[in-house]
Each structure stands twice: as structure tokens, then as C-alpha cells.
Amino acid sequence: MGSRHGKVARTPVSPRDPRVLAGLPSARSAGTAASPGRAAATRAQLGTLAEALLDQPSYQQRWRQNLALTRVLDWLETFPGEDWQDRWLLSGAEDQGSRWGPQDLTPALRNRLTAGLGIMIALRAVRPSYAWLSRSRLLGVYASFRRHNQAGTFADVERYAARHQGHEYAAEAVNVLTRMVIVTGKPLRELDLADFGEYTAARQACGSKVAALPMAYDLLRAVGGLEDLPPTLREAQARGQMSVAELVDRYPVANKEIRDVLVHYLVERSAALDYGSLVNLVQVLVDLFWRDLERHHPGICSLHLPGPVAQAWKQRIRTLPNGQARRTFHSVLLAVRAFYLDLLQWSLEDPARWARWAAPSPVGEADIRGYIKETRRRQARMQQRTRTLIPVLPQLIAAAEDELDAAGRMLSAARDAAAGEEFTIDGQRYRRTGRGSSTWRPSALFVTPADQPGPRFDAERLEDNAFWTFAAIEVLRRTGTRIEELLELTHVSLRQYQAPTGEMVPLLQVSPSKTDAERVIPAAPDLVAVLARIIRRIKRDGTVPLLSRYDGYERTFGPPLPHLFQRTTHHQLQVIPPDRIRELLAGLARRAGITDVDGTPLTFTPHDFRRIFSTETVNGGLPIHIAAKLLGHLDLNTTQGYVAVYPEEVIRHYRQFVDQRRTHRPSEEYREPTDTEWDEFRDHFSLRKVALGRCDRPYGTPCQHESACVRCPMLHMSLNQVPRLLEIERNTHERLDEARRLQWLGEVANLQESLRHIADKKRQAERLRQQQADQGELRENALS
Description:
Elements: H1 43-51, H2 59-76, H3 84-90, H4 93-96, H5 107-122, H6 130-135, H7 141-148, H8 151-162, H9 170-184, H10 193-205, H11 213-222, H12 233-237, H13 244-248, H14 256-269, H15 275-296, H16 307-316, H17 329-349, H18 351-354, H19 371-389, H20 393-416, E1 422-425, E2 428-432, E3 446-449, E4 457-458, H21 459-479, H22 483-487, E5 494-498, E6 504-510, E7 519-522, H23 525-538, E8 550-551, E9 556-557, E10 566-569, E11 572-575, H24 578-592, H25 606-619, H26 624-631, H27 636-642, H28 647-662, H29 675-686, E12 689-690, E13 693-695, E14 715-717, H30 722-741, H31 745-783
Antiparallel strand pairs: 1-2, 2-3, 3-4, 5-6, 6-7, 8-9, 10-11, 12-13, 13-14
Helix pairs in contact: 1-2, 2-5, 5-7, 7-9, 8-9, 9-11, 14-15, 15-17, 19-25, 20-21, 21-23, 21-24, 21-25, 25-26, 26-27, 30-31
């Protein structure tokens, strides 16, 4: 939860700095206005311009074009408007999609009307929307538009696209840029990032894909567009880190003064927090704390909370909106408590600024007393999960190796097969699908089962997924790295160290991550083999490509580095994201059918391998302080929390302790007992049976209460003897009445003491009865 109150780093920001309280930025306006094109041209001008669309036309071609243009102009003139674009919008064709235009037309007339509209689009007299273009099939219109509008620039784009032969999105990327120019009316090189965003939103609203958009971005940059923008669309569209005020304004606070206090407080705390922790703290203080108070107590304007208000909030925070218990509610309470105590401390340092907001904390010591217990429970759950996963880890490793071997043989056979040819793998027949003359991914290795119906799959993608699943498991289990450290490994992370003996020791250098501490891990031969296999796979022209990795915690892109875990996605090299690694591991465990002893499916997460690594190394004899260095822990207690101690380890160490203790004990204590001693020990247990139950005094000790069992704390009551105890109680009351009547004061005191012990025995019997009832209920629930 960060530093303790009063000890946090303070940022040198003036409270009057307007940038501190600046909220979310307003949407920026487009940089370049759309060109009016030829929407205001006359019919005669359009006819003259249309003649240039034909290259050495025949008389029949010219006649067909004039007829098509006449048909669409006649139809548009039936609608009022200042130009052709206005008439197009008033016609309602935008909402009609493929059924636009006059109804009940013959196919021939429909084709002529469509051809005429294509001419209007190519002449820039009409600019349809993205939605209409997505639902319409205008064959040849895009190519005609490129030939007669910014022909030189589009020729450069097509030339760059031709360098990506075999790229399934090359032709579509050129069409994407063409659509954007048609709709926006801008010159091609003046398209900006906002236009890409509008295109994405419009296509997604229609249910269309935008997979070719990243390549369109690359092509536009190649011809000189999108200046001063990042090299990839993903980097350009990334929001990046938001300011504290922007984070706070995601949860609209009604009271502006409280909102400003929260912003100033979080700005000063941000100096000691990473961005991910700052985002979590904003959510806790603004949404889970103050916004919750405003929702249940409209008009609240003070941090000084009345007792009932604070108590009600603490009760609400224990549950999630879906009614389930919130496991992290102690963390929420600690954050709010630190907020109040920080304000109290800062009010002493800077009264003019903070004294007004100093108030008693609604979270007291008693509220956070269970935090240590919850932490221990969470640690116990993690250790139990580790003990559950270690026995099935060999099964996961074997499944990863088998899948990689099968996928490799599948890929090799698919490459050797022609389109439509069948081949056999492990006794099952498959068919290479596709057509040899296809222009869409002609080299794609799509395969479908031939013996029984099944989905088509990509053999290359299947082998790629199998390899990276295998590589992630091997590196994670042999290094114990965190998931972000795994994805930050680069080609230069593998180093060599020359020992004093002259031996070359391979080392794996792990970049600073959570603790900002760099560390070096000795690389075993198996780990070196896996890393070498990865490097051979990702090399292009003898070198590892340089890529920028997106850090999901800090919301930033790193510098271009030769990352090891990189793969081609949509024909673009990218560093594998953490979520993809988690999906691969979960999918492998599901396909392998890994289950617990009770049949519950088990899954592996990247962090599970870190706990398994720490457990196996420490239980294998590695000193825990060395394990802490390998794991990058600054505190040995953290490492101890990762290590799951097995019951056999406890038994073994306890037996060693007992054996060692016996060596220091007198030998006569471990001799064989005589017959007399054994008989005495056996008869001792028969003397433990008394009228009210069982005597639990230690062996060899005399009765301290001279058989006054009702007073003895060693008496274990029997529920069957409760009526006898009640009879003794009635008799004691009668004797007490007699002693009081005859003034036997000593007897009165003894009888009153007996009655007190009898009451204790009755309570003991009631507890035993309740325990038996609870156990019976649990058994019934288990059977049902």
C-alpha cells in the first residue's frame, strides 16, 4: 500500500499549478478540412470528366458509361439539395445499404445505376459513408478512384504494398486508404490519427474487421504521411499514462473541493508509486470510498464522517456489487486509513494547506486487526495451490512436448502437400485446403480432418502456438521469473562468465522489474538449449528484430530491443503480450485433462511456476537467502511465503529432532518395561472410569481431589451421566438448606463451592452436546 503516513515522498508541485487539477482533455478537432471535390459540378462537366476515366474506349463503352451516369444523375435530381452530395444524403441511400436507389428495378437497370454511382465516387462528386461502403460491393471503383485521384501518391502506396508479396492484407490495406480518402475528402498524405480512429469505430459498428488497418498505417507512413507519429498504429493509438486529475475524473465526484483534495493528495503520493499502483489507489480512494459515500449520502461535503456513516461504509465495502465477499477489503481499509493519517501529519507540516481537511480516521485499529490473519490465509491458499500443482507439473511438461512434436510433424506434412491433397499423421488423415490459384494467402497452410468432420485450422499457427507454449513453460519453470521479466528477456540477456577455474558459465541477466533490482541467474544447460532454440527461431537475416514492448502496468512502450518472446501476429512482429501467455498455458492444461485428485480441472498461471521454482529449490537444499537472490526478493520473509513446506518435510525434520533428543536422554528411559510395570500401566486406565465420565489425569499421578470428581477439572463428562449430575445437584441443594438451617457455616461454604463446580460441569456437557450436533449436521450435508 505504499509508504507509511507521514513518510511518503512529496512532489515539488505548486498547489496552484493549473496542470495539477486539469481533467480529461476535450476531443480535438480534425486538422484538415474535407475537400468539396466536384459535388457542385454540372451534368455537362461531370460527363466531360467521366470521359477521362476510360482508356482508349470504344464507342460502345462510351455509350454505356454515359447511360449509367445519366441514370444515376436523373435519380439524384429527384431530391432537393444544393449539390450532388446533399441529394445523395437526402435520398436515404446511406441507411438502405445494398438496397439503395429506386425499388423494383430489373437487374440490368440496377447494374447501370450502380455503375453510374461508381463514376460519381471516382469523380469525387459523391462521398458515401464507411457504413455504406462496407455493405456495398463496388467492383473496380477503388482502383478507378486511385488512377484518377492523387495517382502518383497512390502509385507509391501500391509499390510499397507490392514489396509485401504474400501478405494477406496488402491489397486490403490499399483499399482501406482509398476508403478513407473517399469518405473524408482529404489528400492521402494529410490523413491523421483521428481518421484512423473514425474508420475503426465505423467498421466495428458494422461488424466488419479492421485487421488490415495496421498495414495501412505503415504504408501511409512509407509515402510521407503521419509525420511525427510513432512507427506503428498500436503505439500511436495507445492512450499512455493519464495524469492524476484525469484518473480521478473517471469517477465523477460531486463535491469539487473534495475532488481537488483527492487530486492534490494523490499527486504527492504518486512520487512513491508506480503507475499501476497509482491507478489502484485512485480507484480505492475515489470510487470505493468517496463516490460510494456520495451515492449513499447525497450532499456529503466533509471528510469528518459521523460514526453511523463510517460504520455503514465499512460494512458495504466487505462485499462486491455481485454480492460475493471482497477478498481485498482490508487493503481498502488500509488505504483509507493511510489517507486520513497522511492528512493529519501533513496538517502539522503545512497547516495553511492541509489543516482544514484533517479529520479522525473512520478506520480504527480494530478494523484492520484481521489483516495479518487474512494475509496468512492467503499465503496458506497459495502454498496449498503450489502443493497441488507440483505433482502434475510433469504431466503438463509432457503434454507441451507432445503437442510441439505433433504440430511440427503436421506442419512438415502440410508443406509437402499440394492444395486439396490428403496426408496421414498418427493414423488420421488430413486434407490441405485452399486453391493453388487463390490470390488470398495462396501459401496459407489450412488443414481440415478428412476422416471425420472437424474445424479447419492453420498448421503454421498451430505449430507456432505449440512452440511458444513449450518455450514459456521451460523458461518459467527453470528461472522462476515473473511474467513481465520473461517478456523483457532479450538476445543480450544471455551472458557468459569465466570462473577462476577458467570454466565458462552461462548467465541469464534479468532486467529490473517489480523491485527495480537487476539480477543474474546461472543458466543450466537445458535452459541454454531452450533459449538457443528461441533465438534460432526468431532470427531474420541473421539478426533478432528490434521491437518495442508495451508495458501494461506503466502504460508505456519501451525502447526497441531484440526481445526473445516475439512472434508474428497479423503478419506483424510483436512482443507476445502477457494475456496471450496465460491463454496458451490455460489451453494446454485443458487439452491435457489435468485434474486434481477430486476431478477438479487445474490450470497453470505464469506465477505458479515462480512458486514452484522457489519451493523446489529451497526444499532441494538451496539456502533460502540464495533463493531470495535468484527470485529478486529483498526480504527473506517474502521468499518464505513462496515456499510450500510438504508434510513429509515436517515429518522428516520432526523425526530428526526426536532422534537427536533421544541421544541426550538417559538410556534407562528407553528400556523395555517389566511385567509389573506393564500391568500397573494397563490397570491405570481401568481406574479412570468414574460415575460421571472419565478421569483424564496424567499417568502415574494420584487423585488430587480425594475422589470428589464433581470438583475435579480433569473430569471429562459423559452425556449419558447428565441425569446423575442433576441428581447430585438436587441433593447438594437439600444439604445446603439443612446446613443453613443448622448454622453449619463451614459446610455451607463447601456445598456452595460444589454447586459452582457442578454448574461448570453442566456447561461442559452443553458444549459437548452442541459439538456432537454440529458434527452430525456436517455429516448429513456431506452425504446429501
